[in-house]
Amino acid sequence: MSTLLPLSSMTIEDKLLAMESLWDDLCRLRPPMEPPAWHRHILDERERNLQAGSDELLDWEDAKRAIRERMA
Questions:
Q1: How many CB atoms lie within 10 A of CB 34?
Q2: Is residue 52 part of a domain?
Q3: Which pLDDT belongs to residue 34?
Q4: Which of 14, 54, 68, 72 is the most buried (most CB within 10 A)?
Q5: Would residue 1 count as lying in a domain?
Q6: Is the Cβ–Cβ distance between 40 and 34 less than 8 Å?
Q7: How far apart are CA 52 and CA 61, in angstroms?
Q8: 71: part of which helix (H) or strand (E)?
């Protein structure tokens, strides 16, 4: 099945809504998947760093604030 969206005539808001709809559908319907090997390596490394105490988790709002500060 091929579905084409009129991307060039869609607003950013329309595109974001379409992406959200697609993501919601994928999350609801997708079978369990393993990440690709390269991503598994990164996830494992981050888990090791957390366990070793050399990394920390941030609240999403704090993370967004830190990113915005770095971009300013």
A1: 7
A2: yes
A3: 84
A4: 14
A5: no
A6: yes
A7: 24
A8: helix 60-71
